[in-house]
Design brief:
two-stranded antiparallel ribbon; 2 strands; transmembrane helix; transmembrane; mainly alpha; Cyt_c_oxase-like_su1_sf; single chain
Amino acid sequence: MNSNKFAAYACLLSAVIFAVVGIFADHSLTLDMHVHDTYFVISLPHTLTAVKLIFLLGWICYYFLPSFFPFKTLTWIQVVITLLMSLVIVGNTLWARRFIDLISVEGFELNNRYMIWAFLGLMSGLLLFIGHFVIGTLLCLFRRFNSPSFNSPL
């Protein structure tokens, strides 16, 4: 099986897993983050929907546009980073109150630090995805414009 097809199925499986978690999770849970002067409160369904959409986008791109992602190692690095950071974000939303005392300032700051690093990791995975897509697009265009059929007269 092509590595990009396998990555596509990994993304699809991740989206299905997050959809199932969204069905059975407590919808009163929230993701709380404090960044500079702004306090963000995001409900769990919105967090899970964002993660599902990220993985569905990955599935669509890896399944239908495999030639735009030429580097298999980069593909897997992106999939693994995105999956791990998504698991940290959703897992922290689901179980942080059980293990971290969010009432105390120290507990909230620790939880906030975890969430900020997880979001930065998720954004780095998505930037890696976009960069890989741009490089693959440029390589496809370069191959297309340098092919003998493109340069032949009509």
